[in-house]
Design goal:
The chain folds into two domains: 2-215, no CATH class; 226-273, Alpha-Beta Plaits. The protein has 16 helices and three strands. The protein has helices at 8-22, 26-31, 60-69, 77-89, 93-97, 100-109, 120-125, 128-143, 150-154, 158-167, 174-178, 180-198, 202-206, 209-215, 237-241, 259-263, and strands at 2-4, 223-227, 269-273. The radius of gyration is 19 Å and the shape is globular.
């Protein structure tokens, strides 16, 4: 087993570097045009909008929806295979380290304010993201071709934040062209921003279908937090101090933030290759 020393500062550095790497196409920010080169056919691990003018790669959820909408003609082996590979290797490490929108929510949570902590209600609400995955990402694109981008159009606030806002200066009529979709998405974005100030990463916990996909691989992913059962005394401090709705370290709701590693009194928790 190989372990890595991950501090909060180092995780933030990785998050910032990843956000820059996903959106490094600087000409797009200048001319307001979306990059459509060969790299656009490659899915990045985290949720990053295809329409961001700096984005070199594609969002895996957008690609999955598009692929499933053509399921009657062909099976989207590439997208499914890519998501499976990311899931097996990283699991929800993607959520904790490689997702720009997760980073934005964490920064917003730093704003001083009353905070909503986890409870039995937040735990129950965490299952909503699986419903959104099933309905908006899988069922609607498969059975209604006109809904091939249902999640991106109706629910995902990342498109407004990373795409529309950066494109508006050079495309002033874009909001008018989007019509009611712009109002809906902007409203969702405002709600998520406000919720992120008082509650840690609400979009990731309750809405994000990509997090739901990676959660399915949490138990078997190669990289992540792990517990040395010989050292652990089952004090459950790791569960109590965790901001997320975990039942145990490394489960499907664990975003692998590694906060529990430094809090464990027995140094029984580590981050690295689990097998």
């Amino acid at each position: 087993m190989v372990n890595f020393e991950i501090t909060a500062f180092r995780r933030k550095l990785i998050q910032f570097f990843t956000a820059i790497l996903y959106n490094v196409w600087l000409p797009g920010f200048v001319n307001g045009k979306i990059y459509n080169g060969p790299l656009k056919g490659v899915c990045v691990p985290g949720l990053n909008c295809y329409s961001c003018p700096g984005a070199l790669g594609s969002c895996p959820i957008g690609s999955l929806q598009d692929g499933l909408s053509f399921l009657r003609f062909r099976i989207p082996f590439y997208v499914i295979g890519t998501l499976t590979l990311f899931g097996i290797v990283f699991g929800r490490v993607v959520c904790g380290f490689l997702c720009p929108f997760g980073l934005i929510q964490e920064i917003l949570y730093k704003i001083p304010s009353p905070k909503i902590k986890k409870s039995k209600y937040t735990r129950a609400l965490s299952y909503l993201k699986y419903v959104i995955l099933a309905v908006f990402v899988i069922l609607l694109p498969i059975f209604l071709r006109r809904m091939s981008s249902a999640f991106c159009i109706y629910l995902c606030p990342v498109g407004i934040l990373e795409g529309t806002f950066f494109l508006l200066p050079t495309n002033p009529y874009l909001a008018e062209l989007l019509g009611s979709y712009f109002v809906i998405k902007l409203s969702i974005l405002i709600i998520v921003i406000l919720a992120s100030i008082i509650h840690i990463r609400p979009f990731c916990r309750y809405i994000c279908p990509l997090g739901a996909i990676y959660a399915l691989f949490a138990k078997w992913s190669f990289l992540g937090v792990k517990i040395d059962t010989d050292k652990c005394n089952n004090c459950n401090k790791c569960i109590r101090i965790c901001s997320f709705d975990i039942k145990k370290v490394g489960d499907s709701e664990c975003i692998q933030c590694c906060e529990c590693v430094k809090q464990c009194p027995k140094e029984a928790i580590s981050f690295g290759i689990k097998y």
